Structures are given as structure tokens and as C-alpha cells.
Amino acid sequence: MAAKAGPLELNVMAPVIAFYLLHSMQFLTNAFNTLATECISGITANDAHCREMFYNNIGIVTAVNSYLGYQESRRTAKEALETGVSIIALIRRDKLMSDELLEDVLKPENMTHPHQMK
What we know:
Elements: H1 2-5, H2 14-40, H3 47-55, H4 61-68, H5 70-83, H6 87-93, H7 99-105, H8 108-112
Helix pairs in contact: 4-5
């Protein structure tokens, strides 16, 4: 609003703009501090629930895709969706990968950091 009242490049409203900008920044600072102390501080993740959700997610088929190939991964994912059985259980049932390799491939740490494929 204040910028509209200033003529051309010589904006006489610059002090007003600066004042309200700093005022808004103070509001944001207070809001973030309140959010941090009242909402975020003390939150902890339920590790067991997070791992369960990770290992039962159909999306982990993308991690084994380079080992099984597209067709086998697609078939496994389709069966998992139709039956409700996890990808891991189907891979173990059909002996598509060794347990050791499967565990290594599906470690969340290996999925989030660059590493050499085996």
C-alpha cells in the first residue's frame, strides 16, 4: 500500500515500508518461537511404527527393481496390492533375493545415502 503513494524512484514512503517490514518480521519471529516451544519441542517419532509403515509400503518395490527387473517387480507389486501381503514376504516366498541382500537393499540408511550397488 505504501509503495503506491511514492512517486517514481524517489519513494518517500520507504521509511513506512521499512517499519512495517520489520514489524512483520517480529510477528514471524514470535510465531516461530511459539511454534517451536509449544508444538515441536518434545515431539519424538515412534520408531517401531515408522519401520512397520516403511516395510509394509508398496513403494519399496522401487528399491528392489534394479535387482529383480521391471517385469518381476511389477508382478510382485501387483500381487502385493491384490493380496495385501507385503513386498518383502512375497520376495522371500518366491526366493527372488537372498535374505541378506534383501535386508541390505531395504535398509533405510542405504536408501537415503549414496552407496555402491552389490
